[in-house]
Amino acid sequence: MGNRLSKIVTRTGDGGKTGLGDGARVDKFSLRIVAIGEIDETNSHIGVLLCEDLPQDVRAMLLDIQHDLFDLGGELSMPRHTLLTDAQVAKLDEWLAHYNADLPSLKEFILPGGTRAAALAHVVRAVARRAERAMVALGADETVAPAPRQYVNRLSDLMFVLARVLNRAGGGSDVLWQRDRTMGEAE
C-alpha cells in the first residue's frame, strides 16, 4: 500500500502538483486533493480533541476513528482502490446509538460550546461536514465509493452527539440557542 516516506522534503510538489498513492501526478487544487486535505484536517482536529481529559471509551473510539480516517485518505489517494468498508460505517452507527441512548431529547438547537472538549467535538463536526462536501464534489466528477462519503456523514453526526456527551461528562449541559432572547442594554 503506497510508498513509505524515507524523507519528507522531496521538492516534487514545488510546481503545484502532488503525487497520488497510485503514482499519478495531479494539481494540488484538484477536487481529490481537496477532499484528502479535508479528511486530514478532520483527523488532525480529532488529535487535538484527544489532548483533552476524556472518558476512556471515548478516547478508544476516537483513536479507532483516526485509523479509519487514515484509511479513508489512503482510499482517496488511490483511485479505484477500496480501504473503507460498510463495516466501518456500521461501527459508527453502533456508536451513535450507544452514545445517543441516554441523552435527553432536543427541543432547541444547540450552540457549539460548553466544555472545552465538547467545543472541540463541535469543531470536528463542522470540519467533517466540510470534508463530506468535498467528497460529494469529487464524486460529481469522479467515481467515489459510497462507504467513505457515508462514513464522514455519520462521523459528523457522531461528533454532535459526542459533544453533548462530553458536556455532561464535564458536569455541564448543552448550550441552547435562544430564539427570542432579549439584547442586554448598554451600561
CATH T-level fold name: Hypothetical Protein Ta1238, Chain: A
Number of helices: 5
Can you give the mean pLDDT?
A: 89
- The CATH architecture comes to Up-down Bundle
Q: Measured on Cα atoms, how large is the radius of gyration?
A: 19 Å
What proportion of the residues is helical, as a percent range? Answer: 55-70%
Q: What portion of the residues fall into strands of 2 or more residues?
A: 5-15%
CATH superfamily: Cobalamin adenosyltransferase-like
Can you list the strand order of the major beta sheet? 1-2
Topology, number of strands: 4
Q: Describe the biggest sheet?
A: 2 strands, antiparallel
Distance between the termini: 64 Å
Shape: elongated
Protein name: Cobalamin adenosyltransferase
Subunit structure: Homotrimer.
GO molecular function: ATP binding; corrinoid adenosyltransferase activity
Domain Cobalamin adenosyltransferase-like: 8-165
How would you summarize the topology of this molecule?
Blueprint: E1 17-19, E2 25-27, H1 31-49, H2 56-77, H3 86-100, E3 110-111, H4 116-141, H5 146-169, E4 175-176
Antiparallel strand pairs: 1-2, 3-4
Helix pairs in contact: 1-2, 1-4, 3-5, 4-5
